[in-house]
Amino acid sequence: MDELARVSDTTVRNVRAYQDRGLLAPPEKRGRVGIYDDTHVARLKLINHLLARGYTLSNIQDLIKAIDEGHDLRSILGLENAIGGRWSHERPKTYSLAALAQMFGPQTPTQLARVTELGLLERRGMSFVAKSPALLEAAAAMTKEGIPPRELLDVISLARPHFDAVARLLVDLVVKQLDRYDAGTLPPATDVPALVDAIWRLRPLAAVFVEAEMNRALENAASAYLGGRVATILDRKLSDEAARQAGAPEAHGSGGKA
């Protein structure tokens, strides 16, 4: 068991725990000696891989059971990735504190803490990593137009619950493809590849819905606000013009004698 743990990059304690949970088959008995083989090494490396991806031992137990029942692990992980994988293809970008100061002006520790709490930046030593550089660059451009960073953060804080609610609705539509199967069970192995393809096709369509509706809402809000503002200005101009004309002397009454 010591050798198995060493080869598999784990501990003897973990090996025993996995055996107790049924994740790892017992060794083959040869007399009084238990022999582990490559299948045990492969299983332990799989468990390590799944733990690194964030799965719990209970999740892994379900996956192991599915594999033992004939599911292909690649298909199962493909389904998990189609549902839970990143929806953005942006590459994270690292910014120094000096670069952020150039983009947004000097920032206090409190302001930086708020940015990291919102997940817009992640601190790495003396630098910061942005998961969405495009969002950060857009915020910097708006700051240069005179919008204070604090107000941008306020907007994100207020809007995020609404975005989360919309996202849940759209994700429900996408993964509803699973509803035809019994809850708590994986689809039949033969159905998984087509299901994965369908979910990947639906994901970008959901993003189109979000963008189109957001554009519509922005247009309506801008028209309502700016239209009202322009109407107010025009009304004031017309009132001022009417008052000026009412108070002005008539042109024909100001002539002198010949």
Attribute tags:
single chain, 258 residues, mainly alpha, Multidrug-efflux Transporter Regulator, Chain: A, Domain 2, 3-stranded antiparallel β-sheet, 5 strands, DNA binding, MerR-type_HTH_dom, DNA-bd_dom_put_sf
Description:
The chain has 258 residues and is mostly helical. Helix content is 64%, strand content 7%. The strands form 2 sheets. A 3-stranded antiparallel β-sheet has the order 3-5-4. It has a two-stranded antiparallel ribbon with strand order 1-2. Helix 5 packs parallel to helix 10 and helix 9 crosses helix 10 (192-247). It is elongated and about 115 Å long. The model is unreliable at 251-258 (pLDDT under 50).
CATH topology of the domain at 2-69: Multidrug-efflux Transporter Regulator, Chain: A, Domain 2
Provide mean pLDDT, rounded.
82
Q: Report the biggest beta sheet as strand number plus sense, adding barrel if it closes.
A: 3 strands, antiparallel
- H/I helix tally: 10
What proportion of the residues form beta strands (DSSP E)? Answer: 5-15%
Lateral strand order in the biggest sheet:
3-5-4
CATH architecture of the domain at 2-69, by name, is: Orthogonal Bundle
Distance between the termini: 126 Å
What would you call the structural class? mainly alpha
Helix content: 55-70%
Low-confidence stretches: 251-258
Protein name: Transcriptional regulator, MerR family
Domain HTH merR-type: 1-66
Keywords: DNA-binding
Pfam families: MerR_1
